[in-house]
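[Q] Does anyone have a clean structure-token version of this?
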Amino acid sequence: MRDLEARFTFASLLITIGLTFIFNNVFIINSFLWTFIALFLVFTGTYNTVKAAFNFGKASVGFSIGALLTGIVVLLFEFSVIQYSLSLLLVGIFSSLAVGYIISGVFFYRSVREVISGIILAIIASIFFLPSIFNIPGTFFDFARTYWLGIILITVGLLVFLPRRGGKSE
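[A] Here you go.
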């Protein structure tokens, strides 16, 4: 266990389980599993963001910032700061990843590709949030919301596998 990353992951797992166990026994959380996942995302997102901030050009920091923000959003749901609904959870996850990729593309790597990925994720988040903003009932948005997530995830998945300029494909 000399590797710092393995030690940090093991230590953060132990700390996360301990904190979640204490929160569960004090009855201030709704779900043991979601609190554990959120705290672990906060710990690993913070560690990977700080690590990537000092190693420019090694790896993308967008997902690390997105994981940190996603953990914070899930903790807000768990501690009942935000009332839970599936659409708000999806908005929180997609907007957290969008903010992470935009911050990474603008401040860390000056990458247009990461900024565009962040904008696409922000558009996906707004698709889930628009019906609740405008209070639009109806079968169209129920039907569209049912299939938009699948269509968007398939599209983003295909974009990930597109060949890139200047790099070797493995």
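[Q] Thanks! Anything notable?
[A] The mean pLDDT is 76.
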